[in-house]
Design a protein that fits this description.
With about 300 residues, the protein is α/β, with parallel strands linked by helices. The protein is about 45% helix and about 10% strand. The chain is globular.
């Protein structure tokens, strides 16, 4: 019975195309200043990102995160999360649809406390590869066979450049290829080391159904939270409120000004004798304690 339940859950996930808090309609996409030149094309994107049935067999978010941390190299988890934080589209390619769907779903749930606002297509149908040209940021899981079909289709149309815009996480190959303009950001060593204990490239994602990541996802979520600085507690400082209408508008420049001022200070400090001397003292202390090894 347990095996049948797991198979049913895997089949459910393979057919699930959204998370609860992402846009479910074309109007919601448009309300975020995103538009579709072709209404019919927009309807198809909406259909591909249909809402998850509330009567899911069991909670899947924790399992998807656990499966992602197990099957994807820590540095590539970080790379994909950074791409998504920039609202870049990410394709997850795997040998089977269950793995592709789990990782796509898991990545969307590693952005907490943020919620992914683009489309999430856990399993892209092989005959819908033209959706990869969507102007809306998306996460799309797909089999290797569908990825090859997309390459052939876009090459035949002379539109390979559209695919080069996409960042691609290849689970089986253990590779992450950033799309054009998606600059690399080196992952913090401590974060990679913290995630390394979860990496199990041969893990069977279906066999993992019911798993919960516990605090294993905490390092990547803490990193995302750190980028928000004090926005979560002092959000009113970074916007303008109309007292008559009650409307509030977040102003990115208000948030960025102190961040950039602090970075400018850090740039100046990095060249001072105080910081240079501090690093030398830290190194000497490590050597004296026997914790330092050259190389």
């Amino acid at each position: 019975q347990e095996g049948r339940d797991r198979a049913a859950d895997a089949a459910f996930l393979a057919s699930a195309h959204d998370v609860d808090d992402v846009p479910r309609s074309l109007d919601e996409f448009r309300s975020r200043d995103r538009s579709f030149d072709d209404p019919a094309f927009g309807d198809r994107v909406r259909a591909a990102a249909a809402a998850v049935d509330a009567a899911a067999p069991r909670p899947l978010r924790g399992w998807a995160v656990a499966a992602t941390l197990a099957r994807v190299r820590p540095a590539h988890v970080f790379g994909a999360v950074v791409s998504l934080l920039r609202e870049r589209s990410v394709c997850v390619v795997a040998a089977d649809s269950a793995t592709a769907a789990a990782v796509a779903f898991g990545l969307a749930n590693l952005l907490a406390p943020l919620a992914w606002q683009g489309a999430l297509i856990t399993t892209l149908p092989g005959d819908e590869v033209d959706l990869l040209g969507s102007p809306v940021p998306f996460i799309a899981g797909m089999t290797a066979a569908t990825a090859r079909r997309a390459e052939v289709a876009y090459a035949a149309a002379g539109d390979e450049a559209a695919l080069r815009e996409l960042s691609v996480l290849d689970v089986e190959a253990g590779a992450y290829v950033r799309g054009a303009g998606d600059d690399r950001l080196a992952p913090p060593r401590a974060l990679v080391e913290a995630l390394a204990g979860s990496f199990a490239p041969d893990a069977d994602v279906v066999a993992m159904l019911g798993d919960d990541p516990g605090d294993r996802a905490a390092p990547i979520r803490a990193y995302v939270a750190s980028l928000l600085e004090d926005l979560r507690t002092d959000w009113k400082t970074y916007g303008e409120e109309n007292l008559e209408t009650g409307d509030f508008e977040f102003v990115p420049e208000f948030f960025l000004e102190p961040v950039e001022a602090r970075l400018a200070l850090q740039r100046d400090m990095a060249h001072t004798q105080m910081v240079i001397g501090h690093v030398a003292a830290l190194r000497e202390a490590a050597r004296s304690s026997g914790m330092y090894r050259a190389g």
